[in-house]
Design a protein that fits this description.
heterohexamer, A: alpha+beta, four-stranded antiparallel β-sheet, two-stranded antiparallel sheet, 2 helices, 6 strands, about 20% helix, about 40% strand, D: mainly alpha, Na+/H+ antiporter like fold, about 80% helix, binds adenosine monophosphate, binds sodium ion
Amino acid sequence: MDMHTAKRVEIMIEAPLEKRLTAALEKAGVTGFTVLPVLGGSGRSGRWSREGQVGRAGMVAVICLIRPERLDTLLDAAFAVVEPHIGVVSVTDAMVLRAERF
Amino acid sequence: MDMHTAKRVEIMIEAPLEKRLTAALEKAGVTGFTVLPVLGGSGRSGRWSREGQVGRAGMVAVICLIRPERLDTLLDAAFAVVEPHIGVVSVTDAMVLRAERF
Amino acid sequence: MDMHTAKRVEIMIEAPLEKRLTAALEKAGVTGFTVLPVLGGSGRSGRWSREGQVGRAGMVAVICLIRPERLDTLLDAAFAVVEPHIGVVSVTDAMVLRAERF
Amino acid sequence: MSSIFDLAASNLISPIILSFALGLMAAWARSDLTIPEAIAKGMSIYLLFAIGFKGGASVAAHGVDAKLLTAVGAGVVLSFGLPLVAFTLLKIMTKLSKIDAAAIAAHYGSISIVTFVAATSVLEGRAISSEGYLVAVAAAMEAPAILSALWLVARGGTNAKMDDGLIREIMLNGSIVLLVGAFVIGMITGEKGLAEIAPFIVSPFKGVLCLFLLDMGLIAGRGLRAAKGVVTLPIVAFGILMPLIGATFGLAAALLVGLSTGGVLLLMVLAASASYIAVPAAMRVALPQANPAIYLTLSLGITFPFNLTLGIPLYLTVAQMVTGG
Amino acid sequence: MSSIFDLAASNLISPIILSFALGLMAAWARSDLTIPEAIAKGMSIYLLFAIGFKGGASVAAHGVDAKLLTAVGAGVVLSFGLPLVAFTLLKIMTKLSKIDAAAIAAHYGSISIVTFVAATSVLEGRAISSEGYLVAVAAAMEAPAILSALWLVARGGTNAKMDDGLIREIMLNGSIVLLVGAFVIGMITGEKGLAEIAPFIVSPFKGVLCLFLLDMGLIAGRGLRAAKGVVTLPIVAFGILMPLIGATFGLAAALLVGLSTGGVLLLMVLAASASYIAVPAAMRVALPQANPAIYLTLSLGITFPFNLTLGIPLYLTVAQMVTGG
Amino acid sequence: MSSIFDLAASNLISPIILSFALGLMAAWARSDLTIPEAIAKGMSIYLLFAIGFKGGASVAAHGVDAKLLTAVGAGVVLSFGLPLVAFTLLKIMTKLSKIDAAAIAAHYGSISIVTFVAATSVLEGRAISSEGYLVAVAAAMEAPAILSALWLVARGGTNAKMDDGLIREIMLNGSIVLLVGAFVIGMITGEKGLAEIAPFIVSPFKGVLCLFLLDMGLIAGRGLRAAKGVVTLPIVAFGILMPLIGATFGLAAALLVGLSTGGVLLLMVLAASASYIAVPAAMRVALPQANPAIYLTLSLGITFPFNLTLGIPLYLTVAQMVTGG
Ligand SMILES: Nc1ncnc2c1ncn2[C@@H]1O[C@H](COP(=O)(O)O)[C@@H](O)[C@H]1O
Ligand SMILES: Nc1ncnc2c1ncn2[C@@H]1O[C@H](COP(=O)(O)O)[C@@H](O)[C@H]1O
Ligand SMILES: Nc1ncnc2c1ncn2[C@@H]1O[C@H](COP(=O)(O)O)[C@@H](O)[C@H]1O
Ligand code: NA
Ligand code: NA
Ligand code: NA
């Protein structure tokens, strides 16, 4: 199977920021991402859980697969949104099928 | 802790295809996988979101941890299902505990 | 962007064990983790799905980003909880922003 | 003619239609108002269970009509036949590929149960009775259209991904099973069963329908926003013309079967409406090359609101004229 | 005897039972019909709140019966004792390991609140009254059985993972807290409080129960499909014999306490029913080596439908014969 | 004075308050009782839709009052002004940073629709009527306070992240759109529309409110547990003093506008209550440096229960004394 190197960026961010993050990613030329729900978690700002919440509470996980050479642009864009907020950003090496999509 | 190398395959695929994908994986001898919900995303076919949807709309993420030597069989099986559809496949190097399970 | 090496540990565990796992992680000095919902899956104990379930059924995925040197402590803590139960543990190399958080 | 407009106007200011309009407008204004997926699914399960049960109980009350089987047969024929009409029309009116045209055709042969539900509540509001078994007709009309559309594609040499699994999935999809199952339960337990659970499935029904239509409005509105550019004027024209044609075929079938005024309306509505739940999922499996943005926007964004606002009052006027009811 | 069959037959054609049957059949036919997890949990919260509240309001109306404490005590004794009976029976009838047998035994000492709810709605349908505080008895019977089962295992030298956290979790698990909390609220606010929220917790109750049982049927059916091979004939036999034995113990306890006909039925049902929510979660923590496929299939796939369809009418006939009610 | 206590006592033993207390206690005891997020959101959608619709229908029934606009204007002024009062008070009473104080101030200028709903149900229980358009006032009061608070921060030189997107989000946030939309639908369809869906939005309303307050109690209780240490005594004192001050301003405004007794109570409650849904989300975007643990705990853990239990009866007594109603 024909595989191509890529980076998998995983951004956990507060739900009220989701729109701003994805807008920033799109502006930075990121062509694809996937948003996963998050049930709860723990960090420097304490423990939280989504259960019973009503508003745009909690966090979401945004996953982007991108070509390695575009990583920096993406991280700059993401960082500008995440920086003053609660959230973590991690990057993993990955291989993808159908590279023309990224 | 005794760790073993493995591959972590992450397949984002349209929800109506989930059954077909997991059936194909099982047929290809994949012994385990986990299905995560997806809230929304964006790609070449545009932006979508799960909110308010009624039918088997949206996507799911299927995660498989497998021994490296079985990667190709898995990708062939997955690709046959994903190929004509909307979806992305990525592979990451990983280490697993309890290798006898994979 | 200033990145630091880290490990991304992904633990899929039965939902009734979630509290025990996160308590064990906190006791082992893990400062952050994120819990993702799981829709269903398959493994040695068969196929299962969350749909329609009422109790604390099913599984959750717990993701920890940690400094590499703390991996062993974390795995020991996690393994003690996961070992007699249904679940899988995998580790991936990653890079993180804002290393002071980990 | 004035009565059509009166009817349309009084229909338009019902809480049901206005809730749909609210959803449309909220989506248009890019409000973040959303109904959680689980709640939307829960409401659709409620509506299917309620409408099925009430249909069955009504059949139990009025006796199994000899026309039941004829009506179901007529529904199946309509569902098989309408995609051919829709396909031909699309090939004439638009420049869509054969695959896209076939996928759209499948939607118009099948039915929208929410449009059906909205029509029953218009009938109730006017105290016009109808044959309870039309619920069974609705269920019977869900699937055949998919087969027709796949045949249209296969005939052209393209490979539609038709396998045993898919046929099984279509026939046993959740909506059909729930609708038919509730219908049978209603038939078995009859008026007594209905009385037991009426405070759940009858009294709050219209209110739940309002919230469900709010959600439909949100989804349709967001779909329309996203589909600008994809959906051309001829496609929109098809989305309004086709329900009128479907309704005409439905009318003919209803008269052949010999339904009551209410029954005529409901069969017209079934024929006029387009699926946006079962068929889209089947199309993603069977015709993945077809563009979902087109068929979803058409059925949910154009035809559904058209039927809801203008279609139903129009069909009702015609049904009353024709049956003298 | 004929009356048992009449009762069973009339019970079988209620919307509640038929909804369960629909779920079973849909699962059997591998339909993709599913109820979202959040909706299923929402319905179970509704049912627990409603049944607790109504029990409390009924106690407030009829005065705190001197027998309340005796009945709760009897329930606790049953819950502690029945696992020993179940365990012995399993060791005699089946080849299950000690761990598996103990895990199953825990389920049968504990209770199924949905079976209890179904029984109250049979009583209501027949206008037979019962002691409101049996809701409190139900809550009291949830947990002790787990301790018994863990003692059975520990006695054999195997390490059950029993820690303070687990005891706390069992005693304060959501279902117990909600049931007892709603009971207390019902007792405090009494008939007046009930009147305020009756259109929510009384009128639509049966309808919600139908949809909930549809979901139970789906889960039970899917469990039965998956468990083919794991669940042998002797195990199935246990799943039908044990509720009869439990009901007999429940009958004895109810007569000792001096309950009314309705109360006798309900205590029989509590003793006869097997948990499938609280106890399975506790077993995954405390006895992870036990195979969940066996105990879940037994309690939800065999004993639950048995009680629902044949058990309740049978117990009611016996309760009426014995109390002359 | 004794009547305040009588009123408070009778208020305290309503199912609504006790459900909230149950949630608080369950959280305090670390029970795992939880309401799924989707169900909680579904209930809040239901409550907003119902309260909006009923307000609109009431306006339709009583004619559009000339005071409607004045009342909305008064609400907007209150929402703009109260944050300044709250901010000053916080700077005097506590050692909080300017950012934290401003964030809290935004919450107290805005409103809690659930407190409003609880107050309307107290009015209904006492058959005291109120102006339906206060629902519109409630909607109008949601957003201005956020702008005030951001101005407070910007004035001090710190950069609040205020952009067009945020203003749009605040004005078009789901709660406001749903509340106003349902109000307009209620106004258009009037009594007739209300009659159609009353079995959904009127009869079960109080019961749904109970379950919703159970959830609020769970969240507030868990927040209070987690916030030990963060929330100091002066902060708690503010959480009780500020609603009293807000209510006083609300009273003055209500008298200026010339509202009825019920209307006076409701405007007092709006001014006294603090947001815990819309404003927290806006603060995470606009003032991320502010500590959410403080403002959430204050508004949901201190002020909300205070208003629910003691505040509403107190305000009602005052409103009755002042208006002689
Ligand atoms: N080390 C970590 N690994 C995984 N998730 C984390 C980690 N640290 C923080 N998070 C997630 O990010 C959220 C906010 O973290 P913090 O800003 O540290 O409070 C937490 O609630 C977690 O969901
Ligand atoms: N680069 C990407 N990274 C992460 N997810 C993606 C990416 N591209 C596509 N996806 C996901 O796959 C779905 C379909 O993609 P596409 O086929 O490109 O429209 C999107 O809606 C996303 O959920
Ligand atoms: N190889 C695997 N890859 C991903 N998830 C797995 C794998 N094996 C097991 N799982 C997950 O862990 C659960 C329990 O696995 P098991 O203990 O093997 O039954 C499964 O239902 C899956 O959700
Ligand atoms: Na049609
Ligand atoms: Na029992
Ligand atoms: Na306020």
